[in-house]
From TrEMBL:
The chain crosses the membrane at residues 25-47. SMART domains: VWA. It comes from Nocardiopsis tropica. Keywords: Membrane, Transmembrane, Transmembrane helix. Pfam families: SBP_bac_11, VWA. This is Substrate-binding and VWA domain-containing protein. The keyword Nucleotidyltransferase does not apply. InterPro entries: VWF_A (IPR002035), vWFA_dom_sf (IPR036465). Residues 375-574 form the VWFA domain.
Amino acid sequence: MGRHRGRYAEEPSNRARRRRGRGGAFVALAAALVIVLGLTAAGVYMFGESDGCGGSDIALDVAVSPELAPAVDQVASDFNAGENRVDGRCVRAEVRQVDSANVAYQITGSGATMGDTESDVWIPDSSMWPRLVQSQAGDAVITETGTSVARSPLVLAELAEFADGEATLAWADVIPTSAPGEASERSVRVVDPARSSTGLSTLSLLQSALERSSPDADTFNAHMTAALQALHQGASSDEDAAFLALSGGQADSPPAMVMSEQAVWRYNAAHEEASARANYLEGGTYYLDYPYVVRSEDSDITRAAEVFREAVRSDEALPHLLAQGFRGPDDQMDPAVLTEDVGFTEDAPEELPVPSDGAVTDLTRSWNQLKMDSRVLAIVDVSGSMLAEVPGTGMTRMQVTGAAATEGLQMFTPTSELGLWEFSTDVNNNLHYQELAPVRELQATGDGGTEHRDAIAGALAGLRPRPQGDTALYETYLAAYQEMSRTYRPDRTNVILMLTDGDNDNPGGMELDELMTQIDGMASPSRPIPIITIAFGPDVQNLEPLQEIAAATGGAAYMTEDPTEIGDIFLQAFSLRLTEDDPGAE
């Protein structure tokens, strides 16, 4: 089990000190004079020595989140000058800047790390990290002391030139939750939640807001998928990259970024030409709480850590923290540092409980699942029924489908792979399907220099229904499954996406039982290839076969009479990647 709070119970910062009586003071002074006279006579008078600790110091290695390290280093400098002792040995605190995720992943072995992450004391930016360690590495030496060195609530930072200082926002207002391609009021930036407690807290805040506002699980999953997709588009590998992206924002899509008050202060110090304004959102917020964690069981080290803990929580340490844009352990702040003109308020916002380690794990998994690049073979029905007009649009089913699929392209990252087939009956000699674009990265360029994303968009715009064509669904499903199995990529999510406006209609062709037998012979749990079908229009009379195919492959089948809803269904289809269990068919 990880070590929890025990003998490190929190103490008041201003402890009462016992006072000696006057008589006791005279006795102590007389005794001290006798000792000094004796040492002087012996030639060993030592009170003028510059280092009263000799060579037997206790070195206390303190790993601190980089933004807090300057303030803790100043505290350590004062602490070391004061020659604080344990059993007569001076304690020397040595402060190092160490990324919080780096330490957590080194202990758990669950992520990439670099540099020296070992230490006697660890002060990460959030209690989420030690709790994550305790849940994933129960035998790790992690002693939570109950001490918060500093605090900084999360706010929404917007470039001052675009910010509306009078606007009142809630977390659900921060990012879009609609189908891809629809306009967004702002471009949201986030640091990769897999390595940033601020980024992870952003996901948790949005998840909570969407859970409250969504009427059912399907709506929540679709909205959460849209939120994650939007955040992925504005994600940065680290804070410096996110700051740079924020500073370059434009008026047509004003950028915003969830960050701590202290991070806003640091950003403004480095970007005077593009300063940011802090916005406190309704519904409360999370705080970076900088917990003081001991990582040793050695008696001398633990006692030294306790002495230094008292120093970082002392009244003398507080000015160092406030000068660096932090709030104190009791939410004290310096209005001359966190100034009102850029939105800071002296009143501390409502604090939300730190997410549980289970919630943190689930959110990280969801982020990484959507972060994993997709490998999709999209197949579009070009049978004669696609010539039918969609009521109220002035467009054919083919045109509506092509437009919706083109919007869906925006959901994919540049490194995602996408291919395009069309199908009907006898479209390619004796075959019922035809490749229009191979499965390859969207950012790749063809022989003519055209980016593959543009080639896919052009192919979608050029789709033309075959007036006499029927709908050879089952043969096309099988051919697509064979192709994706042959070219399977284990580092990607391999998916078949079918868009059709009718049931299987190919007299004398393959039957459902034969298709299911063939798929069953190829399917492997270690190489999943879900088939997602979006069936639309009044000609779809029987969804059960499509549901059976979806259930056998871990995919889903959706049906709507309105092709204009395809964009929203795209979100529902992608939300399958947020769930651990096989969702089955819809």
